[in-house]
Every structure is written in structure tokens, then in C-alpha cells.
Write a structure and sequence with these properties.
alpha/beta; Aldehyde Dehydrogenase, Chain A, domain 2; Aldehyde Dehydrogenase, Chain A, domain 1; single chain; binds nicotinamide-adenine-dinucleotide; seven-stranded mixed β-sheet
């Protein structure tokens, strides 16, 4: 990192070195809470991607010649360094992504470190099987790394989701070219440096910053990238699926959501309302699993509406570096405008705007926590991902009605159920179309548990043992005993 006019300037990280982009161009990075420039970052191009892919290809043999346990030691060392530099990384993520510092400290960084340690532990446990297929042959499988991985990361959890991809790929013996989201590259760039300090051989982890349409596309179409792991919007995911079809790359897609958080009349309402509010307002609603549709059983509807408004009023909006801020800004001017447009659409569709709905009267891309009631299941604000602090309250009659509404979108990432009836919650868990169902809680993820969805929410699972499938190929070996 250099500085120009006191603004830190970041090059690409390729083959263990900071490299200027071929274009010589840089773009500015803003703090969404203040709209001030905080850094300048290289605008990589197609040739830079090609150089990074060559470096990753060259490093594959080096990385795989190491004992699996030694690879694990390096990943553990990286986790140690992430921990030692935690305060610096927390601040970077806070300033770059516009997240309240308390939530980065409580969630994003601990989860990233935990993920790195978890997969460090997997390095020497990725094993094949001896399969007793024949008596005249020794038949067994080994698990080989898929090769060079292109990882495309979104802006809503830049470090956490970045590590969700980097850690298991490295554990499986893959090498990577990582593309952070254009506007939130700072924390991963720093972790790339720490990885070198931890002993990761040059070329194993390359970071190329720049426009998604350029860098992402170049990775998707590059003949020497074996696999794309992508988290982002369904529309870009669709393009990636089409692009990778040309050379049959493997892909994992973690896409959007429109999750239902379902409150039955027999729920503990204090907990349910607290969970529903944090489920939709956490990270200013920029969460793929945001419980943006709050389904409320009709007989408690008015009470839940009143309680939700009361909670929304209590949410502390403030500068992201202030310790007690709970609601930060949207990540960019663009995202703020998209969310304001949706609020307008909701009004025009005839939903009742009962709280919030405006840009906050302060610097930064802040929008008030916003609540619509009287939302019809078919409305756009109930069907489309808004990715902002906007809740739609939808009444329902009974379990069947709740399932019909909850399952009635193109997404299926997550859902929540609040009820004290143990039989009902298990029925709902089975009936809900979702990769994760939370019962009497909402929003938790843990690297030990599979994460992902189907339909417009994508396919494949991150986390846990499931992620190892994403980055390995089984090979069958057949040795004649005749
Ligand atoms: P996005 O699709 O705009 O961008 C995601 C990434 O793709 C970025 O790095 C971007 O630069 C890159 N990209 C853009 N155009 C590209 C192209 N043509 N080819 C290749 N790459 C390209 O998404 P976003 O706005 O950064 O993130 C928000 C979306 O991510 C939401 O839809 C959200 O639901 C989803 N998301 C899903 C999960 C999950 O786990 N399922 C988690 C977080 C976010």
C-alpha cells in the first residue's frame, strides 16, 4: 500500500507481489457513512486476470507438494495473524462496508477467523475411501483439488463471505484468484498480505480488484479457471451460469433471498418481535437471508405491528465507528436509491407505509428502518429482494396459509418460525422451502452447518464438510490383483 495525497493506494496482489494494474487506472473507495474517499484501488483488467490465473496455476503444484498438515499449519497461522490484526481489520471493514463497528466486532471478524481455523483443521482430513467393489482388484478413491478457483465476493459481508470461499478452497489444495466487490475490497486485500506473512506460497492466493463486469467476466470465461464460486445477485449468477457453460466449469452459486419470518399467536412475542426486527434491520437489511417478509398470524397482527414500530423507534442510527450504533448506512448511493425506489413501489402498490420510509437527515447513505403493513403476497415488495431495511408485514390464518405464502417466491434460502408448539415447528421446518430454518431464533450461521439455497437462491452449499465437495474431485483408482 502507498499513499497519494494521504489516501492509501492499493495495487493488485498477484504472485505474492503488489502489482500495478495494466491499465494504470485506480478507482476511489468511499466510506458509506460519511461519503468521504478513504482509499484508491487498482482497476484490474483482462490481462491482469490472465496473469493472476497463470500465477495460481503455477502455484498449484507447490501448494499440493506440501504435506496436508503443513498446509493446515499455514492456515492456522493465517487465522492467528487475522486475530492479532483484528482491530485493524475490524476498522477497515467498518469504514469500507459501512457496517456498525459493534457488529463487525461481534460477528464478521470472529466468523472469518473461525472459518479459517475450521478449514485449517480439515486440511489433513480430506480422505478417500477403499471401496470393496471387486475381489480381483483394489479399488479406492482419492480426493483431488479442482484446481484454480475464481472466487467472486459481494459487498454485504466482504471479509466473512470472502473467507467462506478462500478457507475451504485452500484446505482442499486449490489456488485462487479472488475478486472482491468493486466497492469493498480493502479488508481482503489486507488479508492477502497477511496470508503471505503466514507462509502461503506466492501465487496461491491472488486478489484482483476492479469492475465485476470486467474482472468477473474474465474469470468466468478464462479457460484455465476450473471453478467459480460466486455469491451475489441472481441476475449476475445467471450470467455466470451461462458463461461457465461454454467450458463446463464447476460452479457454486449463493444468490438472493426473500425470507419469511413467521410469527404464530402462541409464540413468545417479546422474543419473536426482537428476532423479527433484527432479522430485517441487521446490516441495514443488506443480508441475503434478511427476514424481509414478516408473516403474522391474524389474531396477533395489530399487537405485533405496534411492537415492531416500538422496536424500530429504539434502533440507534449513527456513525458506524460509534460503539452503540445499531443501524448503519446502505453500502452506496446506488444501493440507497434502489431501496428508496422500492419504498416508492410499495406505496404505489397500495401497501401502508407505517414507519420510516425516508433517507435520514445526515451525511451518508442512511435510510430509516421502514415498515409496510397490509402487504399482499403478490406485490413486488413481497416478491423481490430489496436489500435494505424494509419490512413487509403479511397476515396469515393458519399453518397451511403460512406455508403457502412463505413458499410462494422464487427464492428458498432461509426462513424463521416463532411458536411454542413443538409439533407445529417441526411441521413447518419440513414444509418450508428453505436451505435453513430457524426456530424461535433468527439469522445465525455457523461454519459447521451447511449454508445455501435452491431456485433463485442458487445451488451448492458452503460451510461444513459440504464445502469440501465444492473444491475437490473424486478420482477412482482401480488396481488389478490378478
Ligand atoms: P452483485 O451480483 O452485483 O455482485 C456480486 C459480485 O459479482 C461482485 O464482486 C461484483 O463485482 C461481481 N460481478 C458483477 N457483475 C459481474 C459479471 N458480469 N460477471 C462476474 N462477476 C460480476 O451482488 P451484490 O450487489 O454485491 O450483492 C448482493 C447480492 O448478493 C444480493 O442478491 C444478495 O442476496 C446476494 N447474497 C447472497 C448470499 C448468500 O449466501 N446466498 C450472501 C450475501 C449476498
Amino acid at each position: 500500500m502507498n499513499t497519494t495525497n494521504n489516501i492509501p493506494t492499493h495495487n493488485l496482489l498477484i504472485n505474492g507481489k503488489h502489482v500495478a494494474p495494466e491499465s494504470g487506472q485506480f478507482s476511489t473507495i468511499l466510506n458509506p457513512a460519511t461519503e468521504e474517499i478513504i482509499a484508491s484501488v487498482a482497476q484490474g483488467g483482462i490481462n491482469d486476470v490472465d496473469t493472476a490465473v497463470k500465477a495460481a496455476r503455477g502455484a498449484l503444484a507447490v501448494w499440493n507438494k506440501m504435506r496436508a498438515a503443513d498446509r493446515g499449519h499455514i492456515l492456522n497461522k493465517l487465522a492467528d495473524l487475522m486475530e492479532a490484526h483484528q482491530e485493524e481489520l475490524i476498522l477497515l471493514e467498518t469504514l469500507n462496508a459501512g457496517k456498525p463497528i459493534a457488529s463487525v466486532r461481534r460477528q464478521d471478524m470472529p466468523a472469518a477467523i473461525d472459518t479459517m481455523r475450521y478449514y485449517a483443521g480439515w486440511c489433513d482430513k480430506i480422505i478417500g475411501q477403499v471401496v470393496p467393489a471387486r475381489t480381483d482388484a483394489l479399488t479406492y478413491t482419492i480426493r483431488e483439488p479442482v484446481g484454480v478457483v475464481g472466487a467472486i465476493v459481494p459487498w454485504n459481508f466482504p471479509v466473512m463471505i470472502g473467507i467462506w470461499k478462500i478457507a475451504p478452497a485452500l484446505a482442499c489444495g486449490c489456488t485462487l484468484v479472488v475478486k472482491p466487490a468493486e466497492i469493498t475490497p480493502l479488508t481482503l486485500l489486507r488479508i492477502g498480505e497477511l496470508a503471505l506473512e503466514a507462509g502461503l506460497p506466492p501465487g496461491v492466493l491472488n486478489i484482483v480488484t476492479g469492475k465485476g463486469s470486467v474482472i468477473g467476466n474474465a474469470m468466468v470465461s478464462h479457460p484455465d479457471v476450473d471453478k467459480i464460486t460466486f455469491t451475489g445477485s441472481p441476475s449476475v449468477g445467471r450470467g455466470i451460469m451461462q458463461g461457465t457453460a461454454v467450458n463446463f466449469k464447476r460452479i457454486t452459486l449463493e444468490l438472493g433471498g426473500k425470507s419469511a419470518n413467521i410469527i404464530f399467536s402462541d409464540a413468545n412475542l417479546d422474543n419473536a418481535v426482537r428476532g423479527a426486527a433484527s432479522g430485517v434491520f441487521f446490516n441495514a437489511g443488506q443480508v441475503c437471508s434478511a427476514g424481509s417478509r414478516i408473516l403474522v398470524q391474524r389474531r396477533i397482527h395489530d399487537e405485533v405491528v405496534d411492537r415492531l414500530i416500538a422496536r424500530a423507534k429504539e434502533i440507534r442510527i449513527g456513525d458506524t465507528i460509534t460503539a452503540d450504533t445499531a443501524l448503519g448506512p446502505l453500502v452506496s448511493d446506488n444501493q440507497m436509491k434502489t431501496v428508496l425506489d422500492y419504498i416508492d413501489i410499495g406505496r404505489k402498490e397500495g401497501a401502508s407505509l407505517i414507519y420510516g420510509g425516508k433517507r435520514c437527515d445526515r451525511r451518508g447513505y442512511y435510510i430509516e428502518p421502514t415498515i409496510f403493513s397490509g402487504v399482499q403476497h403478490e406485490m413486488r415488495i413481497s416478491q423481490e429482494e430489496i436489500f435494505g431495511p424494509v419490512a413487509s408485514i403479511i397476515p396469515f390464518e393458519d399453518e397451511e396459509d403460512a406455508l403457502r405464502i412463505a413458499n410462494g417466491t422464487a427464492f428458498s434460502l432461509a426462513a424463521g418460525v416463532w411458536s411454542s408448539d413443538i409439533t407445529r415447528v417441526h411441521h413447518m421446518a419440513r414444509g418450508l422451502k428453505a436451505g435453513t430454518v430457524w426456530i424461535n431464533t433468527y439469522g445465525y450461521t455457523d461454519v459447521r452447518l451447511p449454508w445455501g439455497g435452491t431456485g433463485e437462491s442458487g445451488f451448492g452449499r458452503e460451510h461444513g464438510e459440504a464445502a469440501l465437495e465444492n473444491f475437490t474431485e473424486p478420482k477412482t483408482v482401480w488396481l488389478s490383483l490378478l
